[in-house]
Prior knowledge:
Number of helices: 7
Distance between the termini: 41 Å
Strand content: 25-35%
Radius of gyration: 21 Å
Amino acid sequence: MPGKKVIVGMSGGVDSSVAAYLLKEQGYEVLGVTMQIWQEGEEEGCCGLSAVEDARRVARLLDIPYYVLNFKQEFQKAVMDYFAREYLSGRTPNPCIACNRYVKWEALLDRARVLGADYIATGHYARIEKCANGRYAVKNSVTSGKDQTYALYRLTQEQLRHTLMPVGSYTKEQIRELAEKLGLPVAGKRDSQEICFIPDKDYAGFIERYTGIRMPEGNFVTEQGEILGRHKGITHYTIGQRRGLGLPMGRRVFVKEIRPRTNEVVIGEGEEVFSDSLEADRVNYMAVPEPKIGEAGRYTAKIRYGHKGTACTVTRVGEDRIRCDFDEPVRAVTPGQAVVFYRDGRVAGGGTIL
């Protein structure tokens, strides 16, 4: 809606930079903001010191106001504490989903209102649509290769109502071409692939440093309890993992289950890591209204970001619980990760896998 004020979360990357340009071209009053979430002295990452400099250069070129806002406290509580707590409990969290819900949206939207803005915007490859039933939903981007809807399933109706995602109508190639045409200094900047606060991907090392807790060694076991060897601590493993086990089995084996109470990591054969169903809590309904307990619906569900999706029946089985029964078995259902179910290219809802 031209004439309205929008705050664009600028990470210093090409996607959010072009998002700011597109919204200005559409007639919005655009303010650029980088969320300061890093620890002192860190240079890299999607919101590190180098990102601030890149975002500031883009804002200057686009002739829009630019601010750096401190979200360290919100990020530590909603993302880093949660990440460590889940791993210590034998689960595998998705910090980007938590960051989107509680930092990039909830905290930023609160700050945007103080600044008199009508909307917030990001460079996510997704689109927002108002459905025929009056509800707002995240819709697949035009490019399946970069689609980021999976990580946005926890956004609320109020947040979606005040969000713009202009990049979702373009492919990555088109965004880079537009950035080059505009002469944006970040046109060729590579995408960030790692978790921003763990650039070395040593999750177990981060958790030990962050919490001061050193997880003890324990046993690798079979489902029947046979001891196969010793593991380095449960924070080193996730469901479906094959590499880094150090087990001389003479065949390919995988992590099937993590048992924090007994400090055991269960090992299984390839076919043993497939499941026909799962249950999830922390459920958020998006394109569809909250169903009655016992009510079921047909969807396509993704159990991780890179999963292409499998047809399934989703049933609400409790106040905050759903069961997902798949038409075909799915590999490595991982507690702590999200199951996100889709219908007609829109996020219908999702939950955290139990």
